[in-house]
Amino acid sequence: MQYPPGGQDVYICGGPHPGQPGYPPQHASGHSYPPQPAILRPIPPPPPPHNLPTTLLTWRQRNVSNMMARVPSIRACNHEHTQFELQVPDINIPLFIMLPPGFPSEAPQVTVGRAVGHPWVDSSLRVMTEKLRQWNAGEESWIQLDSLVLEIVDGVRTAVPHPAGARKPAHEAAYSPTTHVQYPSASPSQDPNTRRPSQFPELDAMTNDDLVKVLTSKAEFDAVVGTVAKRILGPQNRSLTALRASNAQLAEHTKTLMEECKELANQNNIIRVIDYKQAKEEFDIKDARQKHAMNILAPAALLKNITDAAKAVDEQSERILGKLTQGDMNMEVFLEQYTKMRKMYHVREMKRADVARQISR
Length: 361
Known about the structure:
There is one protein chain. The protein is built from eleven helices and nine strands. The chain has helices at about 55-70, 130-135, 145-155, 170-175, 200-205, 210-215, 220-235, 240-275, 275-295, 300-325, 330-360; strands at about 10-15, 40, 75, 85-90, 95-100, 110, 115, 125, 160.
């Protein structure tokens, strides 16, 4: 593209960039440029930040390099790397970033190519997030450029483009990204045939000042909610006073139930501390008796008892025999006692052998 001779060189950047000096473009010689497509527009670069301290200049250069590396499809619009452009995905609208000479002490300026329906974009097409609003000269408020641009791209890509020159609705212009409106979900008491509205003409007709009054005055808020509820529900509408009274009754009933639960919990603790201790002691006594009986009747214990009993009878019969040999017992008494002891010994020995066979199976 050729410009009239004698003019200064101008760096070309795609897309409109509202609010820049020299808009609409004019050559330095005073001649107007020939009409150009909307995608091309000369942008005079701001003066380079030569007066920045070394620390700030280093921080600035490092952040610009990180942004160019991390943000897809971004490109610089001038040689000084103070103006940048990229296309917002999904809505195909250009996004412009301009770094003022005092950056990072001064906040970067971000604009979009045309009007979109998004709370971050004002009527002058300037993008203003909470991080940009809170930007100040303090180093603790500085944001990494790549993170800031990616956040703006992710937020603006869901915006709805407006026709050229269209004015945003009042309720949309007053919306703040830090304000989240949540509508209550349908409860079983609501009529399932009631259609949840997607538009609120009562809010669309309000100015910003009216919206401020509604959000700061309880009476104004109740009046607007009552009007909307009456339009949506018709004869099923219940006044806010009645709804608040019903909620208060439910809260009192819930409080009573919580106190009853607390009392039941206390009684349960008393039972656990007193009755449980006594029952535990009785259980331990019976458990010890059961274990003792089981130890006696256990196969190994039974075999040991029978073995010891047979051994005791055998020893007693040996003592009787010793008395006979020493002449301390006559023959008749010896035969009676010795025969009895030996018979008892053989019976117990047979039982011992039988139990041993049972255990070995």
